[in-house]
Amino acid sequence: MSKTTLVSLAESLGVSRQTVSNVINAPHRVKPETRMRVQHAIVESGYRPSAAARQLRTRRSMNFGIRMMPVVDGINGSILDRFLHALTEAAQEEGYRVTLFCADTDAGEIRQYEELLKVADLDGFVLTGTHHGDHRTAWLLEHGIPFAAFGRPWSSIEDPFGSLHPWVDVDGGAGTEQATRTLIEQGHTAVGFLGWPGGSGAGDDRRAGWARAMRAAKLPTDSLDIQADDGVPAGAQGAEQLASKGATAVVCASDSLALGALAKLRQLHPEQASPALIGFDDTPVAAAVGLSSVSQPTEDAARHIVAVLAHQLAGSSSPHGDEEPAPERHLLLPPTLIQRTPYSFSSST
């Protein structure tokens, strides 16, 4: 019995050799029904493509890198943990591997790019934590390195290359707008916002969503906007300031801030078992204490980033009837408000 080859497999299925190659090397580019038919035939025939030959042919290592961000308080870091897990799964399904590396600053990350491109021959990178004046995107574009970002380019002036590279982000402003509307619909007319200092792209976006909802309801925002560094202690201090200004409900830019605010509001108003409070990120800690929070579709974001990066790495090819359209290069995903009632841990007497 002769050995199954890529050519014989394509002929038996009545498809082109390029289609079989795409199913193996770039499955996202093939229509689902064709992809499933070819994959089934590969399994049935026992055909085993050589990974070494594929790397030699494509001149790719089938590996891309992503920086592990420093841990702040272990609460909001769980979002990137979920993202990384989903990214690794999606990459594996596409035939790629993920290389993790550490850097304390963006400049350090760029130095790691240079080192990894030399010693590990990585195919590209995934960026997280995009911000104003982000030099990483400019460096990668200047050197022609494929990459995709989890986060928008926040300024067309400081980052004029935003339209030139793929990115996926979550619409944080829509999330805080929905959270604020929900509290207003519950009867609150003084909804405070507890967020990060100005200049943070994601933080400013979340603050803008709160402000839109307040303006739409013709409610004042003066003195109800507190800016603080992220973390539980800052959340407690910010909640105390908002309470002194008459806020009866609070929307927070993160669950870390919300958890600090929850403890402080219970201390200030022990008669209120369930303070009107909504966080952001829907972390496991928020779920454990029954805290309402805005949930990010991190798994969807990770899968799309891998799809768009894999398509970029595969390069363009001539149109073929079996190929799927290219994935969207710029995708803004909607978040979801998860409503809960905070648990009361006080014992009855």
Provide structural commentary.
The protein is α/β, with parallel strands linked by helices. It has 3 domains: 6-57, lambda repressor-like DNA-binding domains (434 Repressor (Amino-terminal Domain), Orthogonal Bundle); 61-170 and 298-333, Response regulator (Rossmann fold); 172-296, 3-Layer(aba) Sandwich (Rossmann fold), CATH 3.40.50.2300. It has helices spanning 6-13, 17-25, 32-45, 51-58, 77-93, 106-119, 135-142, 172-185, 201-216, 232-244, 255-268, 284-289, 298-314; strands at 63-68, 97-102, 124-128, 147-150, 167-170, 191-195, 225-227, 249-252, 277-280, 292-295, 330-333, 336-338. The strands form 2 sheets. The protein has a 6-stranded parallel β-sheet with strand order 2-1-3-4-5-11, sandwiched between helices. It has a 6-stranded mixed β-sheet with strand order 7-6-8-9-10-12, sandwiched between helices. The longest helix has 17 residues, at 77-93. Residues 51-58 and 316-320 have low confidence and may be disordered.
Short description:
This protein has 349 residues and is of the alpha/beta class. The protein has helices at 6-13, 17-25, 32-45, 51-58, 77-93, 106-119, 135-142, 172-185, 201-216, 232-244, 255-268, 284-289, 298-314; strands spanning 63-68, 97-102, 124-128, 147-150, 167-170, 191-195, 225-227, 249-252, 277-280, 292-295, 330-333, 336-338. Residues 4-58 form the HTH lacI-type domain.
